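Annotated sample (chain length 261).
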Amino acid sequence: MVSRRNEILWGICTNTDFDGEGNPCPNCANKVPLSIRGSHKFECPECKEPLTKIPAPKTWWEKYKWLVIAPLVVLIFGGGILAALTLSSSNNDADSFQTKQVTENNVEDVDPSLKEKKGKDGTTDSVAQSQDATGSTVAKEVVQEAVPPVKVEEQTVNKVESKPSKVESERTPVKVSEPRNSGSKNLGYATFKGTLKNGLPDDVNGRLVFSSSHVIDSKDTKGRVAEPGDYVIGEFSEGHLVQGIWYGSDNVVKGSIIIGK
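Output written by the structure step:
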């Protein structure tokens, strides 16, 4: 503990009339902080006038310590973030490599004949791997002979049989799209306006206008009959009414019809 005699006190001179002519003391004019040991008189060494006590001036470290600490904090946190990103990238690469290895091993376990085999002529028979929409691995034979490309709407996928000694490719039948066109068709008892599929009414918002008295639809269990001038607006599928609203020739609603597919 510092004794009172060795304690350092700080003060400034406030003597504004040093020489009796209104000139301040040099220490007062320069606002110089003065340090006085506790064993000495607390007065200006120049004019011998009592000093006004002030707090001790801040040291260089107290003034500028954040200029040193802040860059160190940024460097430490930045290094930690960079290390975390590097580690995460390394883990992702490792997981990707392991996933690839497991996929290859699974295909070889299904059938040992899926591994590459070289023939006498130096050619290589290989089985390519492809992934379907669900992410499962499917084996596909690579045919060496040139086959002209065939454009189909759906890709055929070769199936691997459960027998480990034999792989046979079975091609699923290709679905051919059915022709659709918009227009109108005279059904004899009525005229349909909307989309036609294979020549039959097939539209979610078709219009059937009756020209003669006729059952609205053969699948209607209630056997409702429309009169000339009546019309039905609704959903049609494969030539039959699924559901709709039945209007009279005066455009007044006669009822709603729900038959279903």
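Annotation: Helices lie at 26-30, 60-110.
Annotation: The longest strand covers residues 190-197.
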